[in-house]
Each structure stands twice: as C-alpha cells, then as structure tokens.
Amino acid sequence: MEESKSIPQSDVREITSGKRKRGFGAKVKAHFRRFWWLHLIIFIAAILIIVLCVVYVAVPRMSQDGVNESTLEIQSLELSRPTADSFHLRQTAKLTNHHRYHPRLDAFNASLSVGGAEDKPYAYVQLPAVHATETTFTHVDQEVQIIDMDAFIDYNTQLLTKDSVDLVVKGRTKLHLMRLPDTTVDYHKTVNMKGLQTPYPHFSPKLNRITGLNGLAGFNVTSFSIKLIPEPDGANMVGEVFIPNPSVLTISMGNVTFNNYVDDTFIGTSSLTDLVLKPGDNTVPMRSTVNQTFVIETVVGKYTDGMLPVDIVGNSSVFDGEHLPYFEKALQANRQHIVLNVGAALAEVGGGSLLGGEE
User: For FRET with 106, which of 53, 204, 209, 231 sits at 20 to 30 Å CA-CA?
Assistant: First the structure.
C-alpha cells in the first residue's frame, strides 16, 4: 500500500489565496458597472418628481399664499347714473403685495357681496389685469348690473346705518410668475369700509341738536326760514342741511325726500334735490312743505321754549324719474332725531309774540 503524499504548506497558501472572496466595495463597484443605466434612470426620475412637485405643488401653493397675504384698500368709490337695476361704478383701489415676487394677474370677473352673505353677491365687476409690485393701484370704470336686489338693499342699509360694512370681493384668475407655468389662484378679499353713520359730533345750540340715534351721525339743519306764503312748488320752509360723509364714497342719490314727524304725528316732507354725497362735509339746500298750523300750535301749547323735536325718516329716492329701491329701503330704515329752533324762525317772520317774545 502506497503512502499518501502530503501537500506542501506553501502550496496550500497559494491555493487558498487564489480563491479569496471579493469585499463589499468591490461588489458595489461591479454592480454599478453592470447596472449603471438603471441607476441613471432612477436618478432622472427622482429629479423629475422633485421638479414636478415644486412646479405643480409648491409654486401654486406659494402663489395662492401670496395672493392671500396681499391687502386691498378702496381709495375711492363713486356710484353714479343709478337706475332701478344698475349703476355706474368708478373705483380706485390700492393693492399691496407683501412678497418679494411680483407676479402678473389676469383680468377677471369678481363678485361683490356683503360680509356674512358671501353666497349672495349683489353684482359682478370686471377687475383689470395687474402687475402686483409692492404697491399697485387699480382702476374700475364700468356699468354694473344689480343681480340680487335684496342683497344690494342690505349693503346700502348697512352702509347708511352702521359705522362700517364689510365688502367681500371674490373671483378666480391666472397668475404668471417669470417663466413658470401659469397658476390658477382664488382671489378672496374682505374690505372693511367706513359707513355713513360713523360718529361725527356736531351741535348748534341756536338751531338744533343731534340726539345720536341711528343714521347719518352729524346730520344737521344748519339754517332754515319759515315762509308764511308758500313758494310756487309749495315749499313753506327752506334752509340748508349739513351731511357729513366720513367714507371714501361718492353717491348720486337723485331727488331724496324725507317724512317729518313731531311726537309721531306726520307734519310734512322735506326734499333734497339732486343729492350727491361726497367724502367730507356736504351742505345741501333743503325745501320742506309742512303743516305750519300744527307746528305753531304745538310750539305754543307744548314746546314753549320754541325748541321743536322732529323725527326725520327717509321716504324716496328718484333719479331721472325712476325710483331707486335700494336707496329708498336704506333711507326708510334710517331715522334721525333733531330739535329745531322754531321759536327763532318764527321771530324772524314777526311771530315772536306767539311765544311771549317781542315782535
């Protein structure tokens, strides 16, 4: 039996070293050399997903946030040439953009409504295209059709009887920013407008005083005279009315009439012809037809100091022969209380003796 031959130790080392396993790094390199094309596709797909998310998710969201954070301020608003179901609107507004980006917004159709009733717009207006720099002014000059009369009556009533009213402007438009894809954004702004009832203290001890009921705070009959012989139009009391307007509104109301009451008894009407309320102080001619007999008897028998309390309630608003229901309802919801110095007016026409004074 032959003896088994042993393998030299040096040869064993050579055999084992020839079969040594590759390390992790070598495997990774080999994998990428073999599948480089697959990883390139994955990389491109990842970049594309990121870019698409930025362009179609982040940019629209950023654009909408920019619109939401911008502010709108009405600088002036003029309502003229009113009809029973329309009016002409001229408006200047200030748009403030708080973002460093200055996009362009397309013109769009915007609804106008009263705060708290956004689902009931009273009209639509076409807002112009704008480049939203840090501060931009926009101008509107167009005929506006009233689409919801009740909503417009509510707007005018709040405007006339409250300190302020919320005007809601809503619409949808396209936003353009550099060479990015166009973005659709919702425009939704609430503008708080100062109403015509904002406190405006005024007091005339000689003629009358305002006791502060709802309405045109500061409304004041600054002067009046009694006509013992009525004028051709029937007026037997003429004077001037002071009407403060603390808002930015200019409103053409046409021929406005008021009903006058003393102790809830109707004594006659007063009219303001071609009334246009402008921002600031307004002094308007007033012509009244009143029951002079009742007034004199009431002053002599009850208000012997000559100071006659009168309640004034809106009656009608007529422009170019057409009644304006949205102004009439607002006027009828408004009531002023004044005290007229009838004693002084009677003295001027020789009736001072009726109150125990000199002729």
Answer: 53
Phi, psi of 62 (to 5 degrees): -65, -40
Axis crossing angle, helix 325-332 with helix 149-161, rounded to the nearest 10:
40
Note the pLDDT tens digit of each residue in 162-205.
877 888 999 998 888 767 777 888 888 888 776 555 443 333 33
**How many Å apart are CA 173 and CA 182, to the nearest integer?**
10
This prediction has a pTM of: 0.77
Question: Is residue 171 within 8 Å of residue 187, measured between CB atoms?
Answer: yes
Give the HSE-up count for residue 347: Cα atoms under 13 Å, Cβ half-sphere. 14
**22 burial class (0-12, 13-18, 19+ CB within 10 angstroms)?**
exposed
For residue 232, CA distances in Å to 192, 225, 237 come to 45, 16, 12
> Which DSSP string corresponds to 55-104?
IIIIHHHHHHHHHHH-EEEEEEEEEES--SSEEEEEEEEEEE--SS---E
b/e per residue, 208-244, with b = 16+ CB within 10 A? bbbeeeebbbbbbbbbbebbeeeeeeebbbbbebbbb
DSSP 253: E
- What residues does 80 pair with on adjacent strands? 88
Distance of CA 277 to the CA centre of its chain: 18
3-class SS string, 23-63: CHHHHHHHHHHHHHHHHHHHHHHHHHHHHHHHHHHHHHHHH
Q: What is the mean pLDDT of residues 235-256?
A: 91
DSSP 214: S
| Spatial contact of 165 and 338, defined as CB atoms under 8 Å apart | no
